[in-house]
Model the fold of this input.
Amino acid sequence: MLGQSITRNSVLLAIFAVCTTLLIAGTFLSTRDKIALEKRRAEEKALLEVVPRERHDNSMLDETIPVGPEAAGLGLKEQKRIYVARKRGEIVAVVIPATAPDGYTGAIDLIVGVNTDGSIAGVRALAHRETPGLGDKVDIKKSDWVLGFDGRSLDNPDVSGWAVKKDRGVFDQFTGATITPRAVVAATLRTLQFAEANRESLFGERGQITAGGK
Amino acid sequence: MADVSYRELSFNGLWKNNPAIVQLLGLCPLLAVTGSVVNAIGLGVATIMVLVCSNTSVSLIRNIVSDAVRLPAFVMIIAAAVTCIELLMQAFAYEMYQILGIFLPLITTNCVILGRADGFAAKHGLGPSIYDGFIMGVGFTAILVLLGGLRELSGTGALFANMDLLFGPGAANWEMVVIADYQPFLLAILPPGAFIFTGLIIAVKNLIDDRIKKRQDALKEKPVKGSKRVRVTGTIS
Done:
Protein backbone atom coordinates (compact mmCIF):
# COMPACT_ATOMS: atom_id res chain seq x y z
CA MET A 1 0.00 0.00 0.00
CA LEU A 2 1.33 3.40 -0.99
CA GLY A 3 -0.31 5.22 1.91
CA GLN A 4 1.13 2.76 4.37
CA SER A 5 4.64 3.10 3.06
CA ILE A 6 4.40 6.90 3.13
CA THR A 7 3.28 6.78 6.76
CA ARG A 8 6.00 4.31 7.66
CA ASN A 9 8.70 6.39 6.00
CA SER A 10 7.56 9.65 7.55
CA VAL A 11 7.46 8.13 10.99
CA LEU A 12 10.91 6.71 10.43
CA LEU A 13 12.32 10.06 9.31
CA ALA A 14 10.66 11.78 12.25
CA ILE A 15 12.30 9.33 14.63
CA PHE A 16 15.63 10.05 12.96
CA ALA A 17 15.10 13.78 13.27
CA VAL A 18 14.33 13.44 16.96
CA CYS A 19 17.36 11.21 17.60
CA THR A 20 19.82 13.44 15.75
CA THR A 21 18.39 16.55 17.38
CA LEU A 22 18.79 14.97 20.80
CA LEU A 23 22.38 14.09 19.95
CA ILE A 24 23.19 17.63 18.88
CA ALA A 25 21.39 19.10 21.87
CA GLY A 26 23.37 16.83 24.19
CA THR A 27 26.69 17.80 22.63
CA PHE A 28 25.71 21.46 22.69
CA LEU A 29 24.77 21.39 26.35
CA SER A 30 27.89 19.54 27.38
CA THR A 31 30.26 21.83 25.46
CA ARG A 32 28.44 25.12 26.01
CA ASP A 33 30.39 26.33 29.03
CA LYS A 34 33.72 25.29 27.61
CA ILE A 35 33.01 27.09 24.33
CA ALA A 36 31.97 30.26 26.13
CA LEU A 37 35.20 30.11 28.09
CA GLU A 38 37.32 29.59 24.97
CA LYS A 39 35.60 32.48 23.19
CA ARG A 40 36.26 34.75 26.11
CA ARG A 41 39.87 33.66 26.30
CA ALA A 42 40.43 34.29 22.59
CA GLU A 43 38.81 37.70 22.89
CA GLU A 44 40.88 38.58 25.90
CA LYS A 45 44.11 37.46 24.28
CA ALA A 46 43.90 40.18 21.63
CA LEU A 47 43.01 42.79 24.26
CA LEU A 48 45.95 41.81 26.43
CA GLU A 49 48.32 42.27 23.51
CA VAL A 50 47.22 45.87 23.23
CA VAL A 51 46.97 46.65 26.94
CA PRO A 52 49.14 44.11 28.76
CA ARG A 53 48.36 42.82 32.22
CA GLU A 54 50.96 45.10 33.89
CA ARG A 55 49.11 48.18 32.77
CA HIS A 56 45.67 47.39 34.15
CA ASP A 57 44.10 45.47 36.98
CA ASN A 58 40.44 45.26 36.01
CA SER A 59 38.75 42.74 33.75
CA MET A 60 38.41 44.55 30.45
CA LEU A 61 35.89 42.04 29.20
CA ASP A 62 33.51 43.03 31.96
CA GLU A 63 33.83 46.78 31.58
CA THR A 64 32.61 47.78 28.18
CA ILE A 65 30.79 50.54 26.37
CA PRO A 66 28.57 49.39 23.51
CA VAL A 67 29.34 50.98 20.16
CA GLY A 68 27.73 50.40 16.82
CA PRO A 69 27.49 51.50 13.18
CA GLU A 70 26.29 54.96 14.22
CA ALA A 71 29.70 55.82 15.73
CA ALA A 72 31.28 58.23 13.24
CA GLY A 73 34.65 57.16 11.90
CA LEU A 74 34.80 53.60 13.21
CA GLY A 75 33.11 52.10 10.16
CA LEU A 76 31.55 49.30 12.20
CA LYS A 77 28.94 47.17 10.53
CA GLU A 78 27.57 45.64 13.68
CA GLN A 79 27.23 46.27 17.37
CA LYS A 80 30.59 45.92 19.12
CA ARG A 81 32.13 46.94 22.40
CA ILE A 82 34.76 49.40 23.57
CA TYR A 83 36.83 47.89 26.39
CA VAL A 84 37.98 50.03 29.28
CA ALA A 85 41.27 49.31 31.06
CA ARG A 86 41.73 50.66 34.57
CA LYS A 87 44.57 50.59 37.04
CA ARG A 88 43.60 51.24 40.66
CA GLY A 89 40.28 52.62 39.46
CA GLU A 90 41.79 55.13 37.03
CA ILE A 91 41.16 54.66 33.33
CA VAL A 92 44.51 54.05 31.61
CA ALA A 93 43.33 53.16 28.12
CA VAL A 94 40.35 52.16 26.05
CA VAL A 95 40.37 49.55 23.31
CA ILE A 96 38.18 50.62 20.41
CA PRO A 97 37.01 48.29 17.63
CA ALA A 98 37.19 49.71 14.12
CA THR A 99 36.70 48.41 10.62
CA ALA A 100 38.74 49.49 7.62
CA PRO A 101 36.22 49.00 4.82
CA ASP A 102 38.76 49.52 2.03
CA GLY A 103 41.21 46.64 2.40
CA TYR A 104 42.43 44.95 -0.78
CA THR A 105 40.06 42.02 -0.31
CA GLY A 106 37.26 43.37 1.82
CA ALA A 107 37.02 44.83 5.25
CA ILE A 108 39.77 44.57 7.87
CA ASP A 109 38.61 44.35 11.49
CA LEU A 110 40.92 46.14 13.87
CA ILE A 111 41.16 47.00 17.52
CA VAL A 112 42.92 50.20 18.46
CA GLY A 113 44.08 50.79 22.01
CA VAL A 114 44.08 54.48 22.91
CA ASN A 115 45.81 55.68 26.08
CA THR A 116 44.31 58.38 28.25
CA ASP A 117 46.82 60.90 26.86
CA GLY A 118 45.54 60.26 23.33
CA SER A 119 48.49 58.17 22.18
CA ILE A 120 48.14 54.70 20.72
CA ALA A 121 48.68 51.72 22.99
CA GLY A 122 48.57 49.29 20.13
CA VAL A 123 46.79 48.27 16.95
CA ARG A 124 45.89 44.72 15.99
CA ALA A 125 44.13 43.24 12.99
CA LEU A 126 41.56 40.74 14.24
CA ALA A 127 40.10 39.52 10.99
CA HIS A 128 41.15 40.12 7.41
CA ARG A 129 41.40 38.36 4.09
CA GLU A 130 44.39 40.17 2.69
CA THR A 131 46.67 38.43 0.21
CA PRO A 132 49.02 36.02 1.97
CA GLY A 133 52.61 37.15 1.73
CA LEU A 134 51.69 40.68 0.68
CA GLY A 135 48.83 42.42 2.46
CA ASP A 136 48.70 40.06 5.41
CA LYS A 137 51.68 41.81 6.95
CA VAL A 138 49.13 43.85 8.91
CA ASP A 139 48.78 40.69 10.99
CA ILE A 140 51.15 40.64 13.96
CA LYS A 141 51.79 36.95 13.29
CA LYS A 142 53.33 37.79 9.93
CA SER A 143 55.10 41.07 10.53
CA ASP A 144 55.63 43.63 13.26
CA TRP A 145 54.45 46.45 11.01
CA VAL A 146 51.47 47.31 13.26
CA LEU A 147 53.88 48.01 16.12
CA GLY A 148 54.83 51.16 14.19
CA PHE A 149 51.62 52.72 15.46
CA ASP A 150 52.58 52.39 19.12
CA GLY A 151 52.97 55.77 20.80
CA ARG A 152 51.65 57.70 17.80
CA SER A 153 48.90 60.24 18.35
CA LEU A 154 46.96 62.92 16.50
CA ASP A 155 49.91 65.33 16.65
CA ASN A 156 52.62 62.73 16.20
CA PRO A 157 52.71 62.97 13.22
CA ASP A 158 50.19 65.68 12.35
CA VAL A 159 47.21 64.70 10.24
CA SER A 160 48.98 65.10 6.89
CA GLY A 161 51.62 62.64 8.06
CA TRP A 162 49.02 59.96 8.79
CA ALA A 163 49.53 58.16 5.50
CA VAL A 164 51.88 55.65 3.94
CA LYS A 165 55.20 56.93 2.65
CA LYS A 166 54.03 56.71 -0.94
CA ASP A 167 51.36 59.29 -0.05
CA ARG A 168 53.98 61.46 1.73
CA GLY A 169 53.13 60.08 5.13
CA VAL A 170 55.36 58.54 7.75
CA PHE A 171 54.16 54.91 7.71
CA ASP A 172 55.84 52.20 5.67
CA GLN A 173 53.92 50.48 2.95
CA PHE A 174 54.65 46.86 2.03
CA THR A 175 56.47 45.88 -1.10
CA GLY A 176 53.78 45.10 -3.61
CA ALA A 177 50.92 46.12 -1.36
CA THR A 178 49.98 49.72 -0.72
CA ILE A 179 46.21 49.43 -0.50
CA THR A 180 46.18 47.35 2.69
CA PRO A 181 48.45 49.58 4.83
CA ARG A 182 46.73 52.65 3.42
CA ALA A 183 43.39 51.29 4.65
CA VAL A 184 44.76 50.43 8.09
CA VAL A 185 46.50 53.78 8.54
CA ALA A 186 43.34 55.65 7.57
CA ALA A 187 41.15 53.55 9.85
CA THR A 188 43.54 54.05 12.77
CA LEU A 189 43.55 57.80 12.20
CA ARG A 190 39.73 57.85 12.13
CA THR A 191 39.65 55.88 15.36
CA LEU A 192 41.97 58.39 17.04
CA GLN A 193 39.75 61.21 15.85
CA PHE A 194 36.74 59.36 17.22
CA ALA A 195 38.48 58.97 20.57
CA GLU A 196 39.36 62.67 20.61
CA ALA A 197 35.81 63.72 19.74
CA ASN A 198 34.34 61.50 22.41
CA ARG A 199 36.98 62.12 25.02
CA GLU A 200 34.49 62.94 27.73
CA SER A 201 32.37 59.84 27.40
CA LEU A 202 35.36 57.52 26.96
CA PHE A 203 37.81 58.78 29.55
CA GLY A 204 35.56 61.05 31.59
CA GLU A 205 35.66 59.97 35.20
CA ARG A 206 32.14 59.21 36.23
CA GLY A 207 32.92 56.52 38.71
CA GLN A 208 31.32 53.65 36.86
CA ILE A 209 30.83 53.64 33.14
CA THR A 210 27.15 53.41 32.49
CA ALA A 211 25.81 51.58 29.51
CA GLY A 212 25.14 53.85 26.59
CA GLY A 213 28.19 56.08 26.71
CA LYS A 214 28.64 56.92 23.08
CA MET B 1 29.00 -9.40 1.15
CA ALA B 2 30.76 -10.65 4.23
CA ASP B 3 33.87 -11.46 2.27
CA VAL B 4 35.41 -7.99 2.45
CA SER B 5 39.07 -8.18 3.26
CA TYR B 6 40.47 -5.43 5.41
CA ARG B 7 43.63 -5.49 3.37
CA GLU B 8 41.72 -4.69 0.27
CA LEU B 9 39.80 -1.94 2.06
CA SER B 10 43.06 -0.35 3.12
CA PHE B 11 44.52 -0.57 -0.35
CA ASN B 12 41.33 0.94 -1.73
CA GLY B 13 41.17 3.82 0.70
CA LEU B 14 44.83 4.73 0.66
CA TRP B 15 45.72 4.17 -2.95
CA LYS B 16 43.57 2.50 -5.56
CA ASN B 17 40.36 4.33 -4.77
CA ASN B 18 41.77 7.25 -2.81
CA PRO B 19 38.86 9.62 -2.27
CA ALA B 20 40.87 12.74 -3.00
CA ILE B 21 42.96 11.89 -6.03
CA VAL B 22 41.08 8.99 -7.65
CA GLN B 23 37.44 9.53 -6.85
CA LEU B 24 38.16 13.28 -6.84
CA LEU B 25 35.57 13.80 -4.13
CA GLY B 26 35.62 16.57 -1.56
CA LEU B 27 37.72 18.85 -3.73
CA CYS B 28 36.24 21.99 -2.20
CA PRO B 29 37.87 21.59 1.24
CA LEU B 30 40.84 19.87 -0.37
CA LEU B 31 41.69 22.91 -2.44
CA ALA B 32 40.57 25.57 -0.02
CA VAL B 33 42.25 24.82 3.29
CA THR B 34 45.51 23.17 2.30
CA GLY B 35 47.59 26.33 2.50
CA SER B 36 49.53 24.82 5.38
CA VAL B 37 50.10 21.48 7.06
CA VAL B 38 48.31 22.43 10.26
CA ASN B 39 45.11 23.38 8.43
CA ALA B 40 45.27 20.16 6.43
CA ILE B 41 45.63 18.03 9.58
CA GLY B 42 42.80 19.90 11.30
CA LEU B 43 40.35 19.38 8.48
CA GLY B 44 41.60 15.85 7.86
CA VAL B 45 41.04 14.75 11.45
CA ALA B 46 37.58 16.31 11.46
CA THR B 47 36.77 14.48 8.24
CA ILE B 48 37.99 11.14 9.63
CA MET B 49 35.81 11.57 12.71
CA VAL B 50 32.76 12.42 10.64
CA LEU B 51 33.38 9.51 8.26
CA VAL B 52 33.72 7.01 11.09
CA CYS B 53 30.62 8.32 12.88
CA SER B 54 28.50 8.42 9.76
CA ASN B 55 29.62 5.02 8.48
CA THR B 56 28.99 3.48 11.90
CA SER B 57 25.47 4.81 12.24
CA VAL B 58 24.54 4.18 8.62
CA SER B 59 25.72 0.59 8.91
CA LEU B 60 23.71 0.12 12.11
CA ILE B 61 20.49 1.36 10.60
CA ARG B 62 20.95 -0.07 7.13
CA ASN B 63 18.26 -2.71 7.61
CA ILE B 64 15.71 -0.38 9.15
CA VAL B 65 15.67 2.39 6.59
CA SER B 66 13.76 1.78 3.39
CA ASP B 67 15.33 2.66 0.09
CA ALA B 68 13.01 5.59 -0.55
CA VAL B 69 14.09 7.60 2.47
CA ARG B 70 17.63 6.38 2.87
CA LEU B 71 19.29 9.50 1.46
CA PRO B 72 17.46 11.99 3.70
CA ALA B 73 18.15 9.76 6.66
CA PHE B 74 21.87 9.53 5.80
CA VAL B 75 22.13 13.27 5.28
CA MET B 76 20.50 13.82 8.66
CA ILE B 77 23.02 11.53 10.33
CA ILE B 78 25.94 13.18 8.57
CA ALA B 79 24.75 16.69 9.41
CA ALA B 80 24.31 15.72 13.05
CA ALA B 81 27.79 14.18 13.19
CA VAL B 82 29.34 17.26 11.61
CA THR B 83 27.52 19.61 13.99
CA CYS B 84 28.65 17.63 17.02
CA ILE B 85 32.24 17.56 15.84
CA GLU B 86 32.11 21.28 15.09
CA LEU B 87 30.95 21.91 18.65
CA LEU B 88 33.66 19.67 20.06
CA MET B 89 36.33 21.36 17.99
CA GLN B 90 35.06 24.74 19.16
CA ALA B 91 35.41 23.55 22.73
CA PHE B 92 38.81 21.90 22.48
CA ALA B 93 40.62 23.58 19.58
CA TYR B 94 39.05 26.99 19.34
CA GLU B 95 41.72 28.69 17.23
CA MET B 96 41.74 25.80 14.79
CA TYR B 97 37.98 26.11 14.62
CA GLN B 98 38.36 29.77 13.71
CA ILE B 99 40.84 28.99 10.96
CA LEU B 100 38.79 26.22 9.38
CA GLY B 101 35.72 28.42 9.70
CA ILE B 102 33.12 27.65 7.08
CA PHE B 103 34.90 24.52 5.86
CA LEU B 104 34.00 22.65 9.01
CA PRO B 105 30.22 22.78 8.49
CA LEU B 106 30.89 22.27 4.80
CA ILE B 107 32.14 18.75 5.58
CA THR B 108 28.44 17.89 5.47
CA THR B 109 28.49 18.45 1.75
CA ASN B 110 31.74 16.60 1.23
CA CYS B 111 30.78 13.91 -1.26
CA VAL B 112 33.23 11.46 0.30
CA ILE B 113 30.99 11.16 3.33
CA LEU B 114 27.69 10.51 1.56
CA GLY B 115 29.52 8.46 -1.04
CA ARG B 116 30.92 6.06 1.57
CA ALA B 117 27.64 6.00 3.52
CA ASP B 118 25.56 5.08 0.52
CA GLY B 119 28.15 3.18 -1.47
CA PHE B 120 29.65 1.10 1.30
CA ALA B 121 28.20 1.37 4.80
CA ALA B 122 24.61 0.87 3.61
CA LYS B 123 25.59 -2.55 2.26
CA HIS B 124 28.13 -3.84 4.75
CA GLY B 125 28.33 -4.85 8.38
CA LEU B 126 29.49 -2.71 11.25
CA GLY B 127 33.15 -3.75 11.38
CA PRO B 128 34.04 -3.25 7.72
CA SER B 129 32.01 -0.03 7.59
CA ILE B 130 33.86 1.54 10.49
CA TYR B 131 37.15 0.47 9.03
CA ASP B 132 36.20 1.74 5.59
CA GLY B 133 35.23 5.11 7.01
CA PHE B 134 38.48 5.31 8.91
CA ILE B 135 40.75 4.27 6.08
CA MET B 136 38.99 6.46 3.51
CA GLY B 137 39.38 9.35 5.92
CA VAL B 138 43.05 8.55 6.36
CA GLY B 139 43.49 8.41 2.59
CA PHE B 140 41.80 11.78 2.25
CA THR B 141 43.85 13.25 5.10
CA ALA B 142 47.09 11.93 3.65
CA ILE B 143 46.48 13.83 0.43
CA LEU B 144 45.40 16.92 2.37
CA VAL B 145 48.59 16.86 4.39
CA LEU B 146 50.77 16.14 1.36
CA LEU B 147 49.18 19.01 -0.52
CA GLY B 148 49.39 21.27 2.53
CA GLY B 149 53.06 20.42 2.96
CA LEU B 150 53.93 21.02 -0.69
CA ARG B 151 52.08 24.32 -0.74
CA GLU B 152 53.47 25.53 2.56
CA LEU B 153 57.01 24.59 1.60
CA SER B 154 56.93 26.15 -1.85
CA GLY B 155 54.88 29.11 -0.67
CA THR B 156 56.73 30.11 2.46
CA GLY B 157 59.91 28.05 2.52
CA ALA B 158 59.01 26.54 5.88
CA LEU B 159 57.05 23.55 7.17
CA PHE B 160 54.81 22.86 10.18
CA ALA B 161 54.19 26.48 11.14
CA ASN B 162 51.62 27.22 13.85
CA MET B 163 51.31 23.59 14.91
CA ASP B 164 50.53 24.83 18.41
CA LEU B 165 47.01 25.65 17.20
CA LEU B 166 46.34 21.93 17.16
CA PHE B 167 48.84 20.29 19.46
CA GLY B 168 49.09 22.78 22.28
CA PRO B 169 51.81 25.26 23.21
CA GLY B 170 54.52 22.58 23.20
CA ALA B 171 54.28 22.40 19.42
CA ALA B 172 54.98 26.09 18.88
CA ASN B 173 58.58 25.43 17.91
CA TRP B 174 57.90 22.62 15.46
CA GLU B 175 58.27 25.01 12.58
CA MET B 176 61.14 24.04 10.33
CA VAL B 177 62.60 26.72 8.14
CA VAL B 178 63.74 24.61 5.23
CA ILE B 179 64.97 27.42 3.04
CA ALA B 180 66.15 30.52 4.87
CA ASP B 181 65.46 33.95 3.36
CA TYR B 182 62.89 32.44 1.07
CA GLN B 183 61.00 34.85 -1.13
CA PRO B 184 57.34 33.84 -0.64
CA PHE B 185 55.95 32.17 -3.74
CA LEU B 186 52.44 33.54 -3.71
CA LEU B 187 50.98 31.31 -6.39
CA ALA B 188 51.48 28.21 -4.26
CA ILE B 189 49.43 29.59 -1.37
CA LEU B 190 46.65 31.04 -3.49
CA PRO B 191 43.91 28.78 -4.91
CA PRO B 192 45.60 28.22 -8.30
CA GLY B 193 48.50 26.61 -6.43
CA ALA B 194 46.08 24.08 -4.99
CA PHE B 195 44.90 23.09 -8.46
CA ILE B 196 48.42 22.87 -9.83
CA PHE B 197 49.72 20.72 -6.97
CA THR B 198 46.65 18.46 -6.97
CA GLY B 199 47.22 17.93 -10.67
CA LEU B 200 50.86 17.09 -10.05
CA ILE B 201 49.98 14.61 -7.29
CA ILE B 202 47.46 12.86 -9.54
CA ALA B 203 50.04 12.76 -12.32
CA VAL B 204 52.66 11.20 -10.07
CA LYS B 205 50.16 8.61 -8.84
CA ASN B 206 49.26 7.68 -12.41
CA LEU B 207 52.93 7.48 -13.29
CA ILE B 208 53.57 5.06 -10.42
CA ASP B 209 50.50 3.00 -11.32
CA ASP B 210 51.74 2.82 -14.90
CA ARG B 211 55.19 1.66 -13.84
CA ILE B 212 53.73 -1.03 -11.60
CA LYS B 213 51.43 -2.21 -14.34
CA LYS B 214 54.24 -2.40 -16.87
CA ARG B 215 56.41 -4.34 -14.48
CA GLN B 216 53.62 -6.79 -13.73
CA ASP B 217 52.89 -7.21 -17.41
CA ALA B 218 56.52 -7.95 -18.03
CA LEU B 219 56.60 -10.53 -15.24
CA LYS B 220 53.49 -12.40 -16.26
CA GLU B 221 53.42 -13.75 -19.73
CA LYS B 222 49.70 -14.07 -20.08
CA PRO B 223 47.52 -11.38 -18.50
CA VAL B 224 44.89 -12.37 -15.98
CA LYS B 225 41.40 -12.50 -17.41
CA GLY B 226 39.31 -9.67 -15.98
CA SER B 227 39.69 -8.13 -12.58
CA LYS B 228 38.66 -10.04 -9.52
CA ARG B 229 38.45 -6.93 -7.47
CA VAL B 230 35.00 -5.82 -6.48
CA ARG B 231 34.34 -2.20 -7.18
CA VAL B 232 32.67 -0.84 -4.10
CA THR B 233 32.28 2.79 -4.95
CA GLY B 234 30.09 4.84 -7.17
CA THR B 235 27.10 2.54 -7.25
CA ILE B 236 23.91 4.49 -7.03
CA SER B 237 21.06 2.09 -6.97
Observations:
- The longest strand of chain B covers residues 158-159.
- Chain B touches chain A through 29 residues (CB under 8 Å).
